[in-house]
Request: fold
Amino acid sequence: MKEVVMLEGENGGVVDPRLQAIKAAIRVVPHFPKPGIMFNDITTMLLRPKVFKDAVEIFVDRYRDMSISAVAGVEARGFIFGPPIALALGAKFIPLRKPKKLPGEVISESYVLEYGTDSLEMHVGAVQPGERVIIIDDLVATGGTLCAAINLLERVGADVVECACLIGLPKFKGGCWLNGKPDKFWLGNIYIQACDPRLQTDMNYCGQAVDV
Reply:
């Protein structure tokens, strides 16, 4: 298993002071976008340039020496973190968009949500076979969107190195084994936990959440 770094000295882990400030800057909005949902609002963090910079640099520090060719950002908040991470790594940025948002020829991957289905699209030719790609989003909830992103990239031959999110829901805090592998999923903010990106559709580990 890759490194696990906990905040506040949990399990003897190393405390990164940047994570403390990031955690404090993210606002939790109850009952949004519907009753029962606790929405993690990163817009309050974006109002604090030093904290936003630290959040980007945490990702960059992790991937600087991994020979990353491309950063794929999941619509929409992956578009906030993805481009500055890509620029810092000297990598290209690939937007993974909702249907009918990209003007050129696209490849599409559908996935199941709690309340229906959706899909992600990517321009044909955006990534070449063998290119090392990381997938960036702000939060992992059910995992359905990340599953679709992984499948989309792997269908064209990309090497998905990791998925990386700033925020994980509390039930991720104890760690997770998905499809028997703990090596390709990375969470920041409250803790850093490595898990396989091929996330199962079983929602028992993630609590109630929706992709918005």
Q: What stands out?
A: The chain is about 25% helix and 30% strand. Helices lie at 17-25, 43-46, 49-63, 78-89, 144-155. Confidence is low (pLDDT under 50) at residues 1-12, 174-182, 189-212.
